[in-house]
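Problem 12. The chain below contains 181 residues. Write out its predicted structure in token notation.
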Amino acid sequence: MSAHLKNPVSPQDHSQGPDSAPLTLVEYGDYQCPHCGRAFPIVKRLQKALGKDLKFVFRNFPLTQAHPDALNAAKVAEAAAKQGKFWEMHDALFENQDDLSVEALTNLSVKLKLNGEALEEALGDPGLEERLEKEIEGGVRSGVNGTPTFFLNGSRYDGDWSYGPFLGFLEEALKAAKARS
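Solution.
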């Protein structure tokens, strides 16, 4: 039996795609994880292929034991969100995941034209830490034990997430969802 998402998708989540999409794909990811780095362009292709039929949600799940810069990267992504640039930072972090040092994160912030003072203020906000803790705890409660972990419409997807098989699975789920509605 597959695991289920314990924290339902909400307006507080970072999402792309319409709320009315028949498919909601949630990824628990780590910006420094090489597997998440490989999944990043695959998810982009899935979003393009499925268009308005897919809502994509990203939740932070930094594996700090294995990836020492993952937590800082997640914090910077959340701080960028306060300036309306979560997805730009999300993409930049995956595109530059070989170096997520403090200096590299600062350079990405400058490149994305983030307000430095506002970024520092957001990084010091206890609410940012609470959000990350809530995402991590929700992931643990949902059975996430590695990254990336995907959930489709609330159920964990444990299949092959390479493009072809994943797209095939999503297309079948879409057919079933449309048949039910």
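Discussion. Residues 106 and 116 are 9 Å apart (CA to CA). Students who got a different answer should revisit the alignment rule from Section 12.3.
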